[in-house]
Recover the amino acids of this structure.
């Protein structure tokens, strides 16, 4: 993390204008305007812009380029919100990942800890999916499959039935289904 600067996550609406495979191009365009851009992730209903900045003008420049309404601005330097389920419901996988890591650090029961770890890797895979890195997402899911965990507990932790996730790339969906079928 860059010292002395705020790390912000700006969540914009995505009214179907931008697909997840545009994340890299959006990131490069924003970096040409503001060097402080860390990452961009695109999902079906929102765009996440992750940046290091203490300048309100940066937000205005990003908003002018994205041309969408800001849903929320999060100061990532503050304590992580423990409500990972609300992040998952909104498909905000990076924040869910961060929140689950905090829960994982506190967990004492190894079976639960392993299931949280699989859930964290699921979120990490989905972050890569939002960046259009499908192969990386599949590799992370393969690593998650190698962890001895209880899939029902994983599904309980992440609050979704991994067999019925909508709007997922068929190859990624197949990798998720293999993980479920393997019982990991």
């Amino acid at each position: 993390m860059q010292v002395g600067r705020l790390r912000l996550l700006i969540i914009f609406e995505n009214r179907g204008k931008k697909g997840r495979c545009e994340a890299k191009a959006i990131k490069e365009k924003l970096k040409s305007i503001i060097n402080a851009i860390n990452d961009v992730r695109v999902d079906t209903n929102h765009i996440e812009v992750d940046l290091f900045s203490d300048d309100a003008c940066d937000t205005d420049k990003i908003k002018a380029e994205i041309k969408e309404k800001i849903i929320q601005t999060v100061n990532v330097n503050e304590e992580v919100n423990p409500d990972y389920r609300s992040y998952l419901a909104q498909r905000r996988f990076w924040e869910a990942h961060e929140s689950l890591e905090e829960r994982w650090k506190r967990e004492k029961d190894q079976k639960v800890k392993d299931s949280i770890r699989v859930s964290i890797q699921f979120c990490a895979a989905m972050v890569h999916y939002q960046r259009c890195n499908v192969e990386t997402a599949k590799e992370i899911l393969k690593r998650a499959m190698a962890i001895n965990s209880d899939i029902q507990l994983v599904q309980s932790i992440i609050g979704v039935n991994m067999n019925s996730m909508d709007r997922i790339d068929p190859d990624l969906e197949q990798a998720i289904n293999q993980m479920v079928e393997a019982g990991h």
